[in-house]
């Protein structure tokens, strides 16, 4: 008996499907499990499989068609079998007009004036006909035990999760296995490897006063100050060279951060509007330059202050920075050593961080985030060379500092770091 292959619901939310490909044509012999078409659903493109064995008698849809659930795609049965009854049922037949005319002609030919009693020859033919009809019946697990009804999406999920479909009870139409049936099914063990059993655990630690203060101040800063960010790439080749020369003659080693602090202090001297604070009804423009440097400690972050940094040499800044950092990590900083900052620098370059943005440290109007020095190709004097590059990002309080003001500060900083002799004078 001929059977109709129709578009089924391949996902839980599917209402229609787009035929991305039709894999059969009239006359093709297929068996259960063969792909009839590839259907683009609301979630994925899935194969539409046949549940029947037989010959394709009619193709009702073509590549590029959009079908609704239940629309006819093809008819399968015994070669030469009448399938006019299935066409009469409708279901979105999109066959060509010529095919429909042939079907109509065949229907007219098959109409008999009256039924007569079967002859002996017809009776003898009943047995092979029964066998031929059985060939086109669904080859499902329920009928033959060699085929399991499951939606294409369910088959994909089962394959990914390692689930044997034979162990799943289908709740869909005619016992069809759907995605919903697989949601709470565990994967079928395929090896003797013991399953790992984990244990959820956590611990709660009392928030220290330092962490509370950090949380309060930075929340107020981030929520209260309208931040914007400016990033610039700086060539550090000359800074690398001059630092090497300094460390060959100085008793105390100079770090890149010491050079950045000095350069930033001088850049603030050239751009005093950045060295400022928002006070609500007024803006304070500081004529002195006190640089705060962020230091990570066990409980959070401390910001010791190098005061009058623009008037100190790189060597003096280096000695003071090391002393303050040590006192910060041993919790011996005095309150006066953490007060009065007019600008802050946060450097994560030693951790390999190439670029980041920092939250403004009140009452400052700006904070400079310094990344790692990295080697990368660069065009220098018309030639491609390996250069030492460093990214810096300036976070600005837009109530005080505008974009052009912040950009000019970064230009000054870039000029000094790329020509560090000016920093040492």
Describe this structure in words.
- The chain is α+β, with helices and mostly antiparallel strands.
- Helix 8 crosses helix 9 and helix 8 packs across helix 10.
Secondary-structure blueprint:
Layout: E1 3-6, E2 16-22, E3 29-30, E4 35-40, E5 45-49, E6 54-59, E7 66-68, E8 72-77, H1 84-88, H2 97-110, H3 120-135, H4 152-161, H5 179-182, H6 209-224, E9 227-235, H7 237-249, H8 256-270, E10 276-278, E11 283-285, E12 291-293, E13 295-297, E14 300-302, E15 305-306, H9 314-329, E16 343-347, E17 366-380, E18 383-397, H10 403-418, H11 421-424
Parallel strand pairs: 12-16, 16-17
Antiparallel strand pairs: 1-8, 2-4, 2-7, 3-6, 4-5, 6-8, 9-18, 10-11, 12-15, 13-14, 17-18
Quick recap:
The chain is an alpha+beta fold and 425 residues long.
Strand order in the sheet with the most strands: 9-18-17-16-12-15
Percent helix, as a range, is 25-40%
Give a quick account of the main beta sheet: strands, pairing sense, barrel closure: 6 strands, mixed
Mean pLDDT: 83
Order of helices and strands: EEEEEEEEHHHHHHEHHEEEEEEHEEEHH
List key phrases describing it.
single chain, 425 residues, alpha+beta, 6-stranded mixed beta sheet, 4-stranded antiparallel beta sheet, 30% helix
């Amino acid at each position: 008996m001929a059977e109709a292959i129709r578009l089924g619901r391949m996902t839980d939310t599917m209402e229609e499907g787009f035929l991305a490909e039709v894999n059969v044509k009239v006359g093709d012999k297929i068996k259960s499990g063969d792909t009839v078409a590839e259907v683009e659903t609301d979630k994925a493109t899935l194969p539409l499989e046949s549940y029947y064995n037989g010959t394709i008698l009619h193709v009702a849809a073509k590549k590029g068609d959009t079908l609704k659930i239940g629309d006819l795609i093809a008819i399968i049965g015994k070669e030469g079998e009448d399938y006019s009854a299935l066409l009469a049922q409708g279901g979105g037949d999109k066959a060509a007009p010529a095919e429909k005319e042939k079907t109509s002609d065949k229907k007219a030919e098959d109409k008999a004036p009256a039924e007569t009693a079967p002859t002996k020859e017809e009776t003898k033919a009943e047995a092979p006909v029964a066998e031929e009809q059985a060939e086109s019946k669904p080859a499902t697990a329920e009928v033959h035990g060699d085929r399991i009804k499951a939606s294409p999406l369910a088959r994909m999920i089962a394959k990914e999760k390692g689930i044997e479909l034979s162990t799943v009870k289908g709740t869909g139409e005619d016992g069809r296995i759907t995605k919903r049936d697989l949601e709470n099914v565990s994967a079928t063990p395929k090896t003797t490897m013991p399953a790992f059993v984990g244990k959820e655990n956590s611990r709660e630690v009392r928030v220290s006063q330092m962490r509370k203060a950090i949380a309060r101040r930075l929340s107020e800063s981030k929520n209260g100050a309208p931040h914007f960010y400016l990033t610039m790439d700086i060539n550090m080749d000359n800074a690398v060279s001059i630092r090497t020369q300094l460390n060959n003659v100085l008793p105390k080693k100079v770090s890149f951060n010491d050079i950045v602090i000095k350069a930033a202090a001088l850049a603030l001297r050239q751009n005093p509007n950045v060295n400022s604070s928002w006070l609500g009804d007024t803006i304070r423009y500081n004529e002195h330059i006190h640089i705060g440097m962020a230091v990570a400690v066990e409980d959070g972050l401390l910001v010791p202050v190098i005061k009058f940094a623009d008037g100190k040499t790189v060597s003096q800044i280096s000695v003071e920075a090391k002393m303050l950092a040590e006192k910060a990590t041993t919790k011996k900083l005095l309150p006066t050593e953490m007060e009065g900052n007019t600008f802050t620098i946060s450097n994560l370059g030693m951790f390999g961080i190439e670029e980041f943005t920092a939250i403004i440290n009140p009452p400052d109007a700006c904070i400079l985030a310094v990344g790692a020095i990295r080697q990368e190709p660069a065009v220098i004097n018309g030639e491609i060379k390996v250069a030492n590059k460093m990214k810096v990002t300036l976070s600005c309080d837009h109530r005080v500092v505008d974009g052009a003001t912040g950009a000019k500060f970064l230009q000054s900083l870039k000029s000094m770091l790329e020509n560090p002799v000016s920093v040492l004078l």
